[in-house]
Design a protein that fits this description.
Helices cover 59% and strands 2% of the residues. By secondary structure, the chain is mainly alpha-helical. A three-stranded antiparallel beta sheet has the order 1-3-2. A hairpin with an 8-residue loop joins β2 (265-266) and β3.
Length: 333
Amino acid sequence: PLCALPWSPDLVSEFGRTMASIARLDARISASPIAPAWMLRASWTGYATALRLQQHEIEEIDVISHFTGVSIPGRPPVATAGDPFGACADWTADLAAGSDRHWREDIPFTFDIPDGWSDAPPLARALAVLDFWSRQDNTHAPWLAFPKLLRRMKLTRSILPCLVTGDPGLRFLHGTREAQLKRLLKSLRERADDGLRRLGRLEDYRMRYGAAVDAEHRPGHLPRLGTLALETPFLAARTLVDRFDITLSGAGKLLSRAAEKGLLVETSGRKSWRLYVTPDVGIALGIVAPPRGRPPSPSRSSPALDTVLAKFDIEMAEIDRLLSDHSRKHTEA
C-alpha cells in the first residue's frame, strides 16, 4: 500500500511541498469573495482531468464549450462513444451538497485498513484509498471522488475540484510503487499551484471589472455582463439577447465595448458572430497571451467601487445558493 512505503528523503520532500501547495490554495479560497466563480471553473478543470485519465481525447476547452453551450470556432465536435459529459452534473451537485460524514461512508466497497496506516501522514492515507479504489472501479469515479475525499479526511477546509488526480498505472501496478506515489504527489502539487494562479487572475479580473464599471458615467448593461462572465467565460452576442432582452446589434456593441476596456478578449478572429473570452480563462487555456512586464497596480478602493463589487458578490452568492438548492433537491429525489 502507498501508505506503507519506506520514507526516503526525496519522498518526504515531495510530501512537504505538495501539502504546502494544497494548504496555500485552501487558505486562499476559504477567504476569497470570488470563490463560487472559481469553484465553477475548477469543476470544469477537474472533470477534464478525469476524462483525460480515462484516455478520452477531450480537453478543458471542450468541457467549457459543452457546459456553457457555446461552440468554439476551429474546435471540431467531440467524437467519442457514449456520453463522456453525462456524469458531470451529478458530480458538481455532489460537491455543492457537501457533507461532514465520515470518509468511509461514501466508499462503495469494503476498505480494510492496510499496513502502515497509523504511521502515515493524512495525505498518504488519502492516496492509499485512491490507489485501492482505482482497482475496484475502472471508471472515472475514483479520480472524481478525490477532492471530496480530501475534505472528508480533514486535509482541506473546502472541496477543491481542481484536485482531481490519478494515474492509470495504478490499475495495473505498472512501475515501482514509489514512482507512482511521486507522480501522484507531483500531479497534486501542479494542480494546486495552477488553481492558485487561476484564482489570482480571477480576483484581479473582478477588481478591474468593478473599477471599469465605476468609471463609467452610463454603464448600462456592463455590470450585468461582468456577472454573467463569471458564470459563462465564453460569450457571443446571441448569448446576451435573451439574457438581457436586447437586440443582437446591441449585444454585439456591448461585447465590443467590454473588449475595448480589456475586460474581454475577442478570440474568434471573425468580423461577424464574434466570440469573446474572459482574460483569466483565455490565459489558462493558452488562447490568450499572458501579460508581460510588471503587473499594473490594483485599483484603489472607493465607495462606488465597493458598491459594485458588493453587488457582484451578492449575485454570485445567489448563484451558489441556487446550485445548492438544486443539488439538495437532486439528492432528495
